[in-house]
Specification:
The structure holds two protein chains of two kinds. By secondary structure, chain A is an alpha+beta fold. Helix content of chain A is 49%, strand content 18%. Chain A has a four-stranded antiparallel sheet with strand order 1-2-4-3, with helices on one face. Chain A starts with 24 loop residues before the first helix and ends in a 6-residue tail after the last strand. Chain B is of the alpha/beta class. In chain B, strands 9, 10, 11, 12, 13 and 14 form a six-stranded mixed sheet that branches. In chain B, strands 3-2-1-4-8 form a five-stranded mixed sheet. A three-stranded antiparallel sheet of chain B has the order 5-7-6. Classes of the chains: A alpha+beta, B alpha/beta.
């Protein structure tokens, strides 16, 4: 073997342990463990961000499409429109509305009649004529109480007399009797 | 304290810890320091204490300097291994097996640096390189020691540039010393008649009367008479004879660095500054004369060992490091016993005590790059 050493040349290879070719096994494990930790952290962060963004997105959509608020806005607008129309209504129409109010008071009479209802008796449809006649219909289970009902009705203060009264057997519908009473009443005091 | 340009710090961690601030530009030792606290990688409080000691030293320099630390040899491994062409993973496994064989359980806790055997450097005689394999130089160091050294430098406020095994800085210091020597001992003006420059760029050619290397020829055959003859000849004749020898056979410098402590000496053999072999020699602390003889024997044997590795000529030279009160006589003694040129580290080339040689070798680390 020839040994020509280049003069003045330092042949020392760099052998720095801070830049090793192979790291120690335990060091390698520690490093890979810390890398794995970082990877897991990254995955967790990504999942958290994805889910969080999705929830936020959903909440945005829900906020946009919330129905009750839209409905409320629409109704209040409708009410405002109606108010505007009402403010332009002529006085004759307003008087007619007053009439309507008085007619509604008839219902208080009906309440008085309906108060008479007891076990085995129920009042149904009623109709009020222009002259103050009230047509009542009802159902009664025991026909023997029929006379008592008529008495009680006639004793109510606004009733002048019972104009007609009839009782039908309604067995096919309900085990009981269908009654139809027409009574005359005093006119309304307010009118 | 004003620090010259290009100053770096070398920390020799083989206890006691020695720190040197050395300027490469002016080849000047700026400051030296021996720490009281020993380097113990296992003990954090001791490391902190040592770091604070080194920090105080660095503060006195008033500059943040780059530094290299050298681990104690007990924390390191140096060996060669012939490996066929393998993939990186397989190669790593092979190296790990080799470390496991040398230090059971060590492969798990060692950082490894592997370099292909440099071209032009003879192989150690015991090494067999079968056909198809490449020889690799492997150094390994205990991870705890490496991290402790790194921590130490960071805590001391040094810019960390490297952590090395002690073979590299010792070889480097020895190589550097001998490169400087001819121009330092002789007149610094280039001698035209020999084509020699003051920088010592051609120092392998043994030309000066002061630098008379031990020259051997042939296949392990020691021509013991030649160096003495050359030394005795007048200068002109010696030059003539050596020119002839130079024409006949080119030489290689075998640097033997001997780092002696009280109870043991570590001998690093290197070509140029490439670590080649390492030997630990136990010593008797009470008997320096016997120690000298043991070391002389080891050096002679190692030189012969190196000579058998090659057919070319080998110029051996010895550098002695260590506590000056113990080693000051060794240089002369070894020169007498072995016939090799021997130099105690330090004066006249550099104003340094011999125990700081390895630390200066560490500070020289940026010069230790292999030139491609």
């Amino acid at each position: 073997m020839s040994m020509i050493m280049p003069s003045g040349q330092n042949l020392q290879p760099q052998m720095n342990f801070l830049r090793p070719d192979f790291r120690a096994g335990e060091e390698e494990r520690k490093r890979s463990a810390s890398v794995m930790r970082l990877v897991f952290l990254g995955i967790a962060l990504a999942v958290w961000a994805t889910v969080g963004l999705k929830v936020w997105d959903i909440s945005l959509v829900v906020a946009e499409r919330r129905p009750d608020e839209i409905e409320q806005a629409r109704l209040s607008q409708e009410i405002a429109d109606l108010q505007a129309i009402l403010s332009k209504v002529p006085s004759s129409v307003l008087d007619a509305r007053e009439d309507l109010y008085t007619q509604v008071r008839w219902s208080q009479r009906l309440a008085a009649i309906k108060d008479l209802a007891s076990a085995g008796l129920a009042f149904g449809d009623y109709r009020v004529e222009q002259d103050g006649t009230i047509q009542l219909s009802g159902l009664v289970s025991n026909p023997s109480t029929y006379a008592d009902i008529l008495d009680a009705i006639s004793e109510i203060d606004f009733v002048t007399r019972v104009t007609s009264a009839s009782l039908y057997d309604q067995e096919q519908v309900w085990r009981g009797y269908y009654l139809q009473i027409a009574i005359s009443t005093v006119p309304q005091e307010e009118k | 304290m004003a620090v010259p340009k290009g100053t770096s710090i070398g920390i020799d961690l083989s206890n006691p810890v020695r720190v040197v601030a050395f300027s490469k530009a002016s080849s000047q030792v700026v400051s030296t320091f021996t720490a009281k606290t020993p380097f113990d990688p296992g003990s954090k409080p001791k490391l902190k204490e040592l770091a604070s000691e080194i920090k105080a030293f660095c503060k006195s320099l008033r500059a943040r300097l780059p530094g290299t630390a050298g681990l104690p040899m007990s924390a390191c491994l140096l060996f060669t291994v012939a490996v066929p062409k393998l993939r990186k993973k397989e190669f790593q496994k092979a190296i790990q097996f080799e470390i496991e064989r040398l230090v059971p359980g060590g492969s798990d806790s060692m950082r490894v640096v592997v370099r292909e055997w440099p071209k032009g450097i003879p192989l150690p005689p015991s090494v067999k390189v079968p056909e198809g394999t490449t020889l690799h130089l492997v150094v390994a160091a205990n991870i705890q020691a490496v991290l402790a050294a790194e921590y130490l430098m960071k805590a001391a406020g040094i810019r960390v540039s490297g952590v090395e095994m002690p073979a590299n800085p010792a070889s480097r210091a020895s190589w550097w010393l001998w490169e400087q020597l001819p121009s330092a001992k002789l007149d610094p003006i280039p001698r035209n008649d020999q084509g020699k420059t003051a920088s010592g760029s051609d120092s392998n050619t043994p030309v000066s009367g002061a630098y008379m290397p031990w020259v051997t020829h042939g296949n392990g055959a020691l021509s013991s008479s030649e160096p003495e003859d050359l030394a005795l000849l007048p200068l002109g004749d010696a030059e003539h004879s050596q020119d002839d020898a130079h024409d006949a056979l080119p030489g290689a410098n075998l640097d033997i660095s001997l780092v002696a402590s009280a109870s043991e000496a570590i001998m690093y053999l290197s070509y140029g500054a490439c670590p080649w072999l390492m030997r630990e020699i136990p010593l008797d602390p009470d008997n320096p004369f016997v120690n000298g003889q043991i070391l002389a024997g080891e050096i002679t044997r190692s030189a012969r060992f190196a000579r058998t590795a090659s057919k070319g000529r080998i110029d051996g030279r010895v550098t002695v490091f260590g506590a000056s009160d113990r080693v000051s006589f060794l240089a002369d003694f070894l020169h007498e016993q072995t016939g090799l040129p021997t130099q105690l580290w330090g004066r006249p080339v550099v104003d340094s005590d011999p125990e700081y040689g390895v630390a200066i070798g560490l500070a020289l680390s940026s010069e230790g790059r292999a030139e491609s």
